[in-house]
Amino acid sequence: MAHVELDHLQACLNFALDTLRKEMDKSHLPPLSQQSSVAHPLDDATTYLPSTGLFEARRLSLGASYSWHECINLIIRQHVWLGELKNLIQSPLDKCMEERFAGYGVACTDTLIKTGIIDYLSDVPNPSQGVSAAELASEFELDSKKLVPILRCCAANGWVRETLDSSFALNRCSRTFIEGNVGHKLNYAMPGFMSMVETIPHWVAESDWKLSRSPEQTAFQIAFNTPLLAFSWVVENPDVLVPLADHLQVFGDMSTPSIVADYPWEQLQTPVIVDCGGGEGGLISSILDAHPSFRAIVQDMESGCGLRITNVYPLRAHTSIIECALDTRAFL
Known about the structure:
mainly alpha
């Protein structure tokens, strides 16, 4: 009996993993291990720039696979998401249940970060063995009966592992959530974000604004009970500004190394670059570090650029940044 789709996905997955292994060896990278107590170079896209071959091999393994003939020829024409393997095999009811309860995973991860449990587990004497939920409960004055299912949810999602009954240790990937690391910043988004997400069905199908395309009549205004645009609301709630700015900055920093390395900046006919929506100037600073003869202008809304620079962040110092232009009309 021919299992055409299953055979195709297996072939693509095998090819992707074989290619990833070869490219990692070429780049002299250590083997990947979930149980490692130290971060892997590939864990932080803001600091490590992989080779083109390694990037494509990782993308093949994680996100996209190609038809078998395209894999052989490395001609990329049509993407088939690796998730198709899961979609092909998994029961639709299991898939539905997993999707419905996905929010619990986010809440459980948030709990480990905001309580400080992640940082505590990263600094225990035996990180591979971890500690008991009872010890964590005692350390943070929490209820161990509540902690165990939260930790087990995180274990099911690969962030921690249960080394003994009700004892837990960090997996390698969760080290990104340690305070000071990029994952810690990424996880602190705008309070109420999940409420906004939950409002989307009502906004689209039931609200008085269901046919409106106005940026002042969205799920955001419903969830936060405000007539203000998102950026205006943030300005009026400065306690949200720092975590939100950090959260958004991570997205930019993840792409900065490749933008600096891959774009043919030396072919530009003008030595002045304008970064629209440049925030605190991170991308521009990195470009100027690589091309010191350039000059630059960072342009953003006052809430995105001016307020952050004057009240929250110093602009990443660079003598070639000639102006930070504030434009309150941008992105409205």
